[in-house]
Amino acid sequence: MQEKILLNIDNPGQLEKLYRSNKPTFKSAFNDLYVQLRENPLAEGWYQRLNYAQEEMFWGTPAERTFVVGAALVAAFIAKLPEIFSIDPEFFYTRNIGFIIFPVLIAFFARKNSISMKTGAGLVALILAGAIFINLLPHKQGLPADTLSLSCIHFPLLLWSMLGFTFAGGKGHSEANWLGFLRYNGELAVMMALLLIAGGLTTALTINLFRLIGLDIQKFYFNYIVICGLSAVPLVATFLTQTQPAIVSKISPLIAKLFAPVALVILLAYLGAMLFSSKNPYQDREFLVLFNVLLVGVMALIFFSIADSGTKNSVQRLVLFLLSAVTIIVNGIALSAVLFRISEWGITPNRAAVLGANVLMLIHLLLVSARLFGALKKKGNLEQVGKSIVLFVPVYAAWAAIVTFLFPFIFGFK
In 3-state terms, what secondary structure has residue 55? Predict the structure, then answer.
């Protein structure tokens, strides 16, 4: 980043692009260079801009706060639809959990990035079409519905990709924007965890305080306060990450740096212990499911660590390369287990979906590992690794669309 700043120090437009592509890294690099640039008037202006300290925390404009409150009420209303209209909660939440969370987040970034009316209308149409499709999928009580479960699981991934598109300003597949979106996901997870901890403590304190005076408000509190609060947490956390980036800008890189080596050690120990365990993914279906959940979690950690601006030194690159290499082994075991189960007991919707996902993740991990190895050998840089990460986002979205919309028809709604 420092080299790019030096090359473009007299080009305000290019400096602005560099700043918007990665604000934390730009600020750190610029402050390191400021001693040799302080005679440049443009550099002085940038220094004052980057290091201006607000006297008090900025909580958005009144219009933004009003929008967040209104959108949170909409999310809470959607979450309470089963009670309002006497809908079976199991039917509603399994099919519509994604519609409680993602539409309000998409609306938040659509407003923030001034998405065009045409693009906004297209997003609304896609969300409504998905909602109609999911809720019209047939299911007979007492019969297995693997394709229904798969559609309900994969459709939120489509909504997530739509959120990424809106986060990027509706400008398509931009590497910088999608890496920024991955960083936002990590920061969102951190902020949501903090809010949930605070909410949990508040809930316990409130219920017990009322219990001390002889009032049992637990049922009412959970039915209204907790459900409505949970539906608003992602939106409130998003608002905080956008208006108070300093709150999590230092925490999330620290988490990425700490958890990557911890995950590597745990994964190696887990693979070693599995050799002496009586359970394995080849015979135990539940074990295979948990194995794939582990795989997705570690992949998410790798991608977030790479997207994080702090992943620069050689030790961190080595840890991420080793973690990705071990994850490839985990993926290979999972993939071979799926193939074994297909050869023994035939193809099913679940096995087909997991097989496709494992193949995509294996190819993606191989590509990312190759780029990380190049970065270790100084034959490449982390920007190339970032490109390899965002390259597969539309591929995953396409696979999710296939599982969501085509699998029910391919497998006869079984």
Answer: coil
User: What pTM value is reported for the model?
Assistant: 0.81
In the structure encoding, which two tokens stand for residue 278, read together?
Answer: 């009586």
Q: What is the pLDDT of residues 172-226, one digit of tens each?
A: 656 667 888 888 888 898 899 999 999 999 999 999 999 998 899 999 999 889 9
SS3 breakdown of the chain: % helix, strand, coil, rounded to 5? 80, 0, 20
Query: What is the three-class DSSP state of 67?
Result: helix
Instruction: Please give the Cα distance from 338 to 347 (Å, whole number).
Output: 10
Q: Who wins on pLDDT, 314 or 156?
A: 156
What's the confidence (pLDDT) of residue 175? 67
Q: What local confidence, expressed as pLDDT, does residue 55 receive?
A: 46
The string of DSSP letters for 114-164 reads T--HHHHHHHHHHHHHHHHHHHH----TTS--HHHHHHHHHHHHHHHHHHH
Question: What are the backbone angles phi and psi of residue 280, rounded to the nearest 5°?
Answer: -155, 155
C-alpha separations of 133 from 128, 141, 214 in Å = 9, 19, 48
The number of angstroms, rounded, from the C-alpha of 303 to the middle of its chain's C-alpha atoms is 10
Burial 288-313 (b: 16+ CB within 10 A, else e): beebbebbeebbebbbbbbbbbbbee
Region 365-373: mean pLDDT is: 89
From CA 166, how far away is CA 114, in angstroms rounded?
A: 10
Pair of tokens at residue 83: 């009670």
- Both tokens of 270, joined, read 């887990």
